[in-house]
Design goal:
heterodimer, A: about 375 residues, alpha+beta, Heat Shock Protein 90, 2 domains, two-stranded antiparallel ribbon, 12 helices, elongated, B: about 500 residues, alpha/beta, Rossmann fold, six-stranded mixed sheet, 15 helices
Chain lengths: ~375, ~500
């Protein structure tokens, strides 16, 4: 973990502590305000009864009573919708954050914050969460996962080209082909600088990666693609974060089909709705038990902060969490990933993304800069 | 481009601070029939509640026709335009079919209601699905099947694009189920989407395009159309399958030579011939009623003392009555709701039927104490201290079946024992019924749909309106003309088995 990451973790912790204090304040104030509200309503109801009594004894004014009734209803309505409910929602929202959920859409809700100081703190956290640095951190981790080491790319490509040349001269076509696939894969992973790519490009990278893996597994591993022909033109132009599919495909091979006896089938399925692009990466491998699945989905749901990475002693699912975080950062937390699995019956990873074909349509473009 | 009718995206939902759904994800396409198989029923009612209304979520998003209706941020007010059909009716009793379908529809603005107009409006709908039903009939008089059809039509007329049907196979007979499947497919082809909750993969396989497996408040897996094969689905129920297979193989080796303990003769006017059957000690006889009127008549015979139908029973060669006879026990439908006395404690509930066997069971507490001591190790010590209503579903089943075992009857009549139970509870009920059979008690199961009963049955009697009863010995189960659950086991096992 480098200094920047450590600093971010420290910052996260401090902010979490501060949020805890804000919750306590909100809770305290919303309870007191509710008490005040009840007192005022009771007072107004008492006044109404008093006026009604006067009216029945012939001394009261109907007009006054009507004003009192209307005033009470209006006061109750305004207070409930404009003061109490927003405060309650703020409290719920901040509790969610402490439970580990994302805070990414807090600004959109326009909820009340107690003081300008508190508002600044929340704003600061929101900015930190959506910052390009945060995105870089996630992206870099994706690259680490693909490479495991920092490698000088040009040196790597040149070496691979040399190996390919030698292999061709020696008549070793399979070695040449494998080397070429490896060079193509690294070029896409390291040198392609864009954060968003088209489905077509990402799929090409998956095919390249699979070509490399096939040298290891041979016909024991099969890759299938599923999509509706009439939707494909639209699907292949959709923009998705770079390195979304390959890490999941790799996971499916390592944790799913590699451990299975017999042929392993991998399937990438694309579906397009009016609003969404749904990608499902399935394997018919060993699957996972219910508790492992629960843990994994919990990580995808809650581990959204930089601090959640590389915790000592933590293992498994990092590639998936990482892809999921990048999706949340770019598109918002209504999109993301979910895992379905049954032990012995395989695993499906479903990725839901907005169906956008242009970078301009993206919600949080700031993180891509 | 396909249209998505419904989507639940990583929904986490609490009820009274108890986590009911966690990371629940499911989507349904336009015109799709999605099967939902609950491995256990945890969270199932919450899922239905979320379909119907929009209670606040802890996390996640719900979309209906690609528009957000509920999320952790905010929820749409009011109910969703989704129809939910389950065992209890949502129709207003005392009103006619047409009133329920048209007049109670949101947006109905007419002040003067003309029954003839409503009738003519309903006619094309009924014609389209080939159902004969009077628009002026009162909903209280409808059969279960007709009630389901009316609720479905009500949803269609109201423009609800998603319709949920829960556990239909426990409410209607096999023939009616097939008709219902036809109606569902007809509307699915028109773009309506369905969620069909069913516990048996045979039902799901016959009807659904995809199937979701639900367990502990989340979806474990969604089987895609290419995966909707018997083998795939059967492997999901491996444990249950193994249990039943083991039982059948064991049974094959053991021939039932017990004497005929109970003989029944009854005249039910809807049947072409009198109903007659006899059952051996330790034998499981399943009576499947293919007609709802006959089923109701049978219920009356078993539960009501004053019935209009003629009924005679010989128990061990002597005339016998069901009511008040401790040699005969009746396990009612959904027994965890109908056979528990909440005002009594656990031990009293357990010893409830002991009075004929041990006369002074209610006078001295010594007997109840010794029952508690003897059964404490089997039932668990903690159950005796808990109020009976707070017991888990499994503990309730255990209590009721242990009560029957303590009673030591000669014959037990079970009314739809698996109704409303999820997979894990079905397995447990199955084990409890097997225990009764092992003790040499004759078990007569009354069912509308075969469901799990076939896995225990030694014989099957099918009764239908205006038709003679049809009897199948276990060796003849393979010739049953429907795709019933567990039939595959009899087809796979060598055909030399059977206890009789």
């Amino acid at each position: 973990m480098d200094d920047a990451e450590k600093r971010k973790m420290e910052e996260d912790k401090t902010l979490k502590k501060r949020v805890q204090q804000i919750i306590q304040k909100l809770h305290y104030i919303s309870n007191r305000v509710l008490l005040l509200f009840i007192c005022m309503i009771l007072f107004m109801v008492f006044q109404m009864i008093y006026q009604l009594g006067l009216l029945l004894s012939g001394r009261g004014e109907v007009f006054l009573l009507l004003i009192l009734i209307a005033g009470t209803i209006l006061f109750a309505g305004v207070f409930w919708t404009k003061i109490f409910l927003p405060y309650q929602q703020s409290e719920r929202m901040l509790k969610r954050f402490l439970d580990g959920y994302s805070m990414s859409d807090y600004g959109e809700l326009g909820l009340p914050i107690l003081t300008p100081n508190t508002a600044d703190e929340i704003q600061k956290f929101d900015e930190l969460f959506r910052s390009p640095q945060m995105f870089d951190l996630n992206k870099r981790q994706a690259q680490y996962l693909a490479l495991q080491n920092q490698i000088n790319p040009h040196f790597l490509y040149n070496t691979l080209e040399s190996i390919r040349g030698e292999a061709l001269i020696a008549g070793l076509d399979s070695v040449a082909d494998m080397t070429e696939a490896l060079a193509t894969f690294f070029r896409y992973t390291i040198s392609k600088v864009e954060n968003l790519v088209s489905v077509e490009e990402e799929l090409e990278n998956c095919k390249t990666y699979f070509r490399i893996q096939q040298y290891r597994f041979g016909s024991r591993l099969q890759l299938h693609f599923d999509y509706r022909e009439e939707e494909w033109e639209e699907i292949k132009r959709c923009r998705i974060p770079k390195l979304t599919l390959q890490p999941i495909l790799e996971n499916s091979i390592i944790h799913g089909t590699e451990l299975k006896i017999g042929t392993g089938n991998l399937r990438i399925q694309f579906e397009r709705t009016e609003e969404r692009l749904i990608i499902r990466i399935s394997d018919d491998g060993v699957g996972m038990d219910e508790s492992t699945l629960w843990e994994l989905n919990k990580k995808l749901r809650k581990d959204n902060t930089a601090a959640s990475y590389q915790q000592p002693g933590e293992k498994g699912g990092i590639a998936l969490v990482n892809v999921n975080n990048r999706i949340h950062l770019i598109f918002g937390d209504e999109y993301g990933m979910h895992v379905f699995s049954i032990q012995g019956e395989g695993t499906d990873v479903e990725i839901v993304l907005p169906g956008v074909t242009s970078d301009r349509e993206i919600k949080n473009r700031g993180v891509l800069q | 481009m396909r249209k998505e009718v419904f989507r639940m995206e990583r929904v986490t939902y609490r009820e009274n601070d108890i986590l009911m759904l966690e990371d629940f994800s499911l989507n349904i396409w336009e015109g799709e029939i999605m099967g939902l198989i609950p491995v256990n029923s945890y969270g199932l009612n919450s899922f239905i509640d979320l379909l119907a209304g929009n209670p606040p979520l802890e996390d996640g998003y719900i979309y209906y026709r690609e528009e957000i209706t509920n999320s952790w941020k905010s929820a749409k007010r009011g109910n969703n335009r989704i129809t939910i059909i389950r065992d209890r009716t949502s129709l207003v009793e005392g009103m006619t079919v047409a009133d329920n379908i048209f007049v109670l529809r949101p947006g109905f603005r007419k002040s003067i209601i003309q029954p003839a107009v409503l009738e003519s409006q309903l006619e094309p709908f009924l014609k389209e699905i080939g159902i004969r039903l009077s628009a002026r009939a009162y909903v209280d008089k409808l059969t279960s099947f007709e009630r389901i059809v009316v609720e479905l039509l009500k949803g269609i007329v109201a423009g609800h694009k998603l319709i949920l049907l829960s556990e239909m196979s426990t409410l209607i007979s096999g023939d009616e189920l097939r008709k219902l499947y036809g109606i569902i497919r007809h509307y699915a082809a028109q773009g309506y989407s369905f969620i069909y909750i069913g516990s048996h993969f045979e039902d799901i396989l016959q009807l659904c395009d995809r199937a979701a497996l639900m367990s502990n408040g989340h979806i474990e897996k969604v089987l895609q159309p290419r995966e909707m094969e018997t083998e795939n689905l059967r492997s999901l129920f491996r444990e249950y399958d193994k249990m039943v297979r083991g039982y059948l193989e064991h049974k094959k080796e053991k021939k039932n030579t017990g004497k005929y303990i109970c003989q029944v003769y009854s005249e039910i006017e809807e049947m072409a011939e009198p109903l007659q059957f006899r059952v051996r000690q330790g034998e499981c006889l399943v009576i499947q009623s293919l007609d709802n009127h006959i089923y109701r008549a049978m219920l009356q015979l078993l539960l009501d003392e004053d019935t209009d139908y003629y009924w005679s029973m010989l128990l061990d060669g002597k005339d016998a009555k069901i009511q008040g006879n401790r040699k005969i026990a009746v396990i009612q439908e959904q027994c965890t709701k109908t056979m528990i006395f909440p005002e009594m404690n656990y031990i009293d509930n357990l010893c409830f039927n002991l009075d004929k066997r041990i006369r002074n069971v209610w006078i001295t507490s010594r007997i109840r104490r010794s029952v508690r001591q003897e059964y404490g190790t089997i039932l668990g010590k903690e159950v005796f201290a808990a109020p009976v209503e707070e017991l888990t579903e499994k503990q309730k089943y255990q209590m009721i079946y242990t009560r029957i075992l303590l009673q030591k009857p000669e014959v037990v009549f079970c009314i739809q024992p698996f109704k409303g139970a999820d997979l894990s509870h079905r397995m447990y009920i199955w084990e409890l019924l097997e225990q009764l059979l092992e003790k040499g008690i004759a078990v007569v199961i009354l069912a509308v749909n075969l469901a799990d009963t076939l896995s225990l049955a030694d014989r099957l009697i099918c009764i239908d309106k205006d038709k003679p009863q049809k009897e199948y010995d276990q060796r003849e189960f393979t010739s049953i003309p429907i795709l019933a659950p567990w039939l595959h086991l009899y087809r796979e096992l060598p055909r030399d088995g059977g206890r009789n």
